[in-house]
Design brief:
Radius of gyration: 22 Å
Number of helices: 10
Oligomer: single chain
Structural class: alpha/beta
Distance between the termini: 56 Å
Order of helices and strands: EHEHEHEHEHEHEHHEEHEHE
Strand content: 15-25%
Helix content: 40-55%
Number of strands: 11
Strand order of the largest sheet: 6-8-9-7-10-11
Length: 276
């Protein structure tokens, strides 16, 4: 493997347990790249002393990891550093992040990106940022992922739907219908991201499909959800907005999708609406 041309050797600096197991599970060792893992500065220094790496990737949600990366960065001959994961919400160290490139700005093999997503999701679960009932991201976590996609100017549809009437029809002590709604959304929009805030589900579906196709698919999904409810006479309000139409701004997308959802609720026809 090491004799292949074009081999890229990556070093991941991260304190989270289980990352090395994920690497072994996901990374294709027959590819043109290899990955090494270091859980501390001393481990990273030892690896750097004996091997040459193309890139060092490190998590930014730990001050000790950030300090280790900053110290290693000063060493002569060190490869470029790239931040992955969330940044610490600490004004005192915000300047430190400017010394490193964010993960969004580089291209990596699919398996590596998949690894980062799973590492990040595991961190969000550990921090209680994933809803236990539905398995959807809580709003702060969803916002992080949406903002990342908008920075890349990803075309697609942002949507939100209210489960107020739906959850009212369901027995609160038996939240099976809410779980079914979340499952139906995840099953229909496998390439998208989904979040939940109270009784409202938000999502973004990266796609270059026509608005007409998206509306058709979504309305069919709403009809299925209503049929599964104990009280099929209920309605589900849903609104959507196209990312490129609103300058890839998460705030604008939420604003106009929410307005469209209000119009959908007023009509009560179980149809998703776009704000005009």
């Amino acid at each position: 493997m090491n004799g292949r041309q074009g081999m890229h050797k990556l070093l991941i600096l991260d304190e989270q347990e289980g990352v090395s197991a994920l690497i072994n599970e996901i990374i294709n060792t027959e590819g043109y790249y290899s990955v090494s893992f270091a859980g501390s500065r001393s481990e990273a220094e030892s690896l750097l002393k004996n091997q040459s790496f193309s890139l060092i990737l490190f998590t930014a949600d730990s001050k000790s990891c950030l300090d280790a990366a900053d110290a290693l960065r000063r060493k002569k001959g060190c490869p470029p550093f790239v931040i992955m994961g969330r940044e610490l919400n600490d004004k005192g160290i915000s300047k430190s992040y400017k010394r490193f490139k964010p993960i969004d700005e580089i291209r990596l093999p699919f398996e590596i990106n998949d690894l980062f997503d799973r590492m990040e999701d595991d961190c969000f679960i550990a921090e209680g940022l994933v809803d236990e009932l539905t398995g959807l991201f809580k709003k702060p976590c969803f916002d992080i992922k949406l903002e990342r996609l908008m920075k890349k100017k990803t075309q697609g549809f942002f949507f939100c739907l209210s489960l107020n009437a739906y959850s009212f029809a369901a027995n609160p002590s038996e939240p099976l219908q809410i779980q079914m709604a979340a499952y139906a959304l995840k099953n229909n929009f496998k390439d998208g991201i989904l979040g939940i805030s109270g009784n409202q589900i938000v999502g973004f579906f990266p796609s270059q499909r026509s608005k007409r196709d998206f509306v058709k698919q979504f309305n069919k999904l709403i009809a299925t959800m209503c049929q599964a409810a104990d009280k099929p006479e209920i309605f589900i309000a849903a609104g959507a907005a196209e990312s490129d139409k609103y300058g890839f701004s998460p705030e604008e997308l939420l604003l106009y999708a929410d307005k469209a959802m209000a119009l959908s609720g007023e009509e009560g026809k179980n149809l998703i609406k776009f704000y005009k």
